[in-house]
Amino acid sequence: MATKTPPKKPLYPPEWYSIALAVKVRSNFICQHCGHSHSPGTGYTLTVHHKDHNTFNNSDDNLIALCQRCHLIEEGKYRHRLRQDRLLNALQASGQQILPNFGSILFPQSNIPNSVSLSSD
Q: How far is CA 9 from CA 16, 40, 56, 57, in A?
């Protein structure tokens, strides 16, 4: 007997293509980070980035037109911050002693505090 897989939740709302087009038009089809124009033939395809990473928050102030290169950079920064937070939380949960300047040594230019005190209760 085959089991049914539940239907996947859509990653974007049904009207996403029209929303994305409106953002690209608003930016004159120019990347808002590097200023490169939409030119798929040269590797600069314009995409739309959610600043808060919530694909259902499609308010104008949350959407920005980025070329694929800049979009990948932004997503990489976001994923890096998630890994930092997970590591720090895991260390804190395990009761590990964290040395002063932990954040600045392991993660230069990050949002991890320079020193963290943990209670060993």
A: 14, 29, 12, 16
In a domain, 116, yes or no: no
84 within some domain: yes
pTM of the model: 0.63
In total, how many domains does the chain have?
Answer: 1
pLDDT tens, per residue, the chain with 121 residues: 556 666 566 788 889 999 999 999 999 999 999 999 999 888 889 999 999 988 889 999 999 999 999 999 988 887 777 787 787 777 777 777 666 555 555 555 555 454 444 444 4
Domain assignment present for residue 89? The answer is yes
Q: Please list, in sequence order, all residues whose beta carbon lies within 8 angstroms of the beta carbon of residue 43, skipping any fewer than 6 positions away.
A: 68, 69
